[in-house]
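Dear colleagues,

As part of the handover before I leave the project, I'm documenting each prediction I ran so the next person doesn't have to rerun anything. This entry is a single chain, and its sequence is reproduced below.
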Amino acid sequence: MTNTFDISPLIRKNVRELTPYQSARRIGGKGDIWLNANEFPTAPYYQLTQQTLNRYPEPQPEQVIKLYANYAGVKPEQLIVSRGADEAIELLMRAFCEPEKDSIIYCPPTYGMYMVSAQTMGIGYKAIPQTENWQLDLPTIEKNLENVKLIYICSPNNPTGNILNSDDIKTLLNMTKGKALVIVDEAYIEFSMQNTVVSWLKNYPHLVILRTLSKAFALAGLRCGFTIANEPIITTLQKVIAPYPLATPVADIAAQALSAENISIMQNNVAGLNKQKQKLIDDLQAINLVDIVYPSYSNYLLVKFNSSVPVFNKLWQHGIILRDQHNQLGLNNCIRISIGTQTECDALITALRCLTNEEISHG
């Protein structure tokens, strides 16, 4: 006889009712061409050099911090490293928001983890939709600042691929002085480095910037992210982060990736991928199923189709896995497509050319 135990009364109410973030890997699929997770299409090669796995790692690996600070143009005291930028999103909430009292603001359509993290931690969340051209709705944000401690914005924005207007970000920073932190998620900034706001830190003590090695550095499997902010914010985050957030092999490879030689390789890879992206844009615009290919400053494209659901499903069945955005706010008939290898992009275009309007309408 099997004993059963209903754990539901023990689960926090907000967690019981929570729908977890639907990551690309959680959604799954079976295919040969994966263009759904904004990963870099080719893998770098590193060998482990640190073999002291019997010892705990450094709480904040000094070499990684030093190298990334040099790369980002900040002081080591302005950095904390975490298990991807996802952990940093939650660290900020843990450090600055009182559950059941404080709130965050996020601006859909955007990265879903801002809302999910707030739900998980019992923190309020206010969704202030972006304008029709995917910019900040500043008047509405200003009216909703009561009890808000954190404002998350993403630039380049996932999944739309656009850059937020720099004057609007400055206006937001000015309106929130002494009230809230503004977090600019720059996970994709290497694909349009001229748009980073890191140089603004000296003028805005409440500015926080999130970065990662997952995208341009091609290390999504490493789970290594960075928070860049002024020292009082970093000191506060140090109080709530886990004792050993980065495993020794992770710190080892991250330090190698941040060498001058490998940064140069990354930058060359980004330039090549941006060229590939332009070719994919041109090819997609010639497909009769495509309505709009939106401008992108990232390593993915948001594409509006005549009818996205059958296109997505047909490609899924053929082993080409994309990211359906059809149900996101304001993204009806939209699909997000990561920039893959040239072979993968060509296979996508070939498959789309085979899907005639008649096949889609009867599919």
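The first helix runs from residue 13 to 16. The longest strand covers residues 148-154.

All the best with the project,
I.
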